[in-house]
Amino acid sequence: MKIDGYTRLAAVVANPIKHSISPFIHNSAFEATNTNGVYLAWEVEATDLAETVANIRRYQMFGINLSMPYKEQVIPYLDQLSEEARLIGAVNTVVNREGTLIGYNTDGKGFFKSLPSFKISGKRMVLLGAGGAAKAILTQAILDGVSQISVFVRSASLEKTRPYLKKLQIETGFKVDLFALEDSQKLQDSITQADLLVNATSVGMDGTSQPIPTGIVLPKQLLVADVIYQPFETPFLNWARSQGNHAFNGLGMLLYQAAEAFELWTGKEMPMDEILQSLSEKYQ
């Protein structure tokens, strides 16, 4: 990697963030595409967020990625928002366009690009959870022409989830169906009719827990995805594969959302196969 007076910076900003593998992904991409850039991980306090964003202009950076807890907090410091970032209400990528700072959210696009040979347009989706990843996925699904979405959350989270879905309906005209995860019959009925089932919760990161009852029967045509990539094979994915369904973990989403950001910054495509192979070896 060449570093000289023309090297441009990019960074991921969060707290904590030193564990991030984003520097590995982006620095590999800079090197593979002969782009004169360096990507760092910046652990920033909330009181320093405004100054950190100002530094994107000051140092003529490519831009930054954001993770928790700053995906929403960064918005007041930006000049523009993309459509998906506005609808999601969160930004994971800031692009410096000649001093204009534009906020994007590449999580949803990254998720759907990680599913080979699958197009959400005209399809039915069951989504488990309503956190940040879930909002990005369901918003992108709406923008991409999904026909129907059923969101399942725990009963205690129903009232907290409704305002966002109502806002989304007002903005897009699309009504998302919301149900309690404890309603096993409704869950089974929805899954039976679905084309895609997504676990967008953190349940399964412990390597033992399941987001839904294992008594649920999966239709053969159903594609199953988990946003988790550590562990590489969650109990949810193992269970889905045992029923004969194709299933994908969250590693592809991690890489493809990064690829979307990389292209926004540089105008170049990330060398996906090479980096995905390295990531798979790292986490499998």
Question: Which bin fits the share of residues in helices?
Answer: 25-40%
Q: Radius of gyration, rounded?
A: 19 Å
Mean pLDDT: 96
Uncertain segments of ≥5 residues (pLDDT<50)? none
Structural class: alpha/beta
Q: How is the biggest beta sheet arranged? A: 6 strands, mixed
What share of residues are in beta strands? 15-25%
* Tally of separate helices: 10
Description:
The chain has 284 residues and is an alpha/beta fold. Helices cover 38% and strands 19% of the residues. The strands form two sheets. It has a six-stranded mixed beta sheet with strand order 2-1-3-5-6-4, with helices on both faces. Strands 9-8-7-10-11-12 form a six-stranded parallel beta sheet, sandwiched between helices. Helix 1 (22-32) packs across helix 9 and helix 4 crosses helix 9 (251-266). The protein is globular and about 60 Å long. The protein starts with 7 loop residues before the first strand and ends with a helix. The mean pLDDT is 96.
Summarize the structure.
The chain has 284 residues and is of the alpha/beta class. Helix content is 38%, strand content 19%. The chain contains ten helices and twelve strands.
Topology record:
Blueprint: E1 8-14, H1 22-32, E2 37-43, H2 49-58, E3 63-66, E4 80-81, H3 83-88, E5 93-97, E6 100-104, H4 107-113, E7 124-128, H5 132-143, E8 148-153, H6 158-172, E9 177-180, H7 184-193, E10 196-199, E11 223-226, H8 235-242, E12 247-248, H9 251-266, H10 272-283
Parallel strand pairs: 1-2, 1-3, 4-6, 7-8, 7-10, 8-9, 10-11, 11-12
Antiparallel strand pairs: 3-5, 5-6
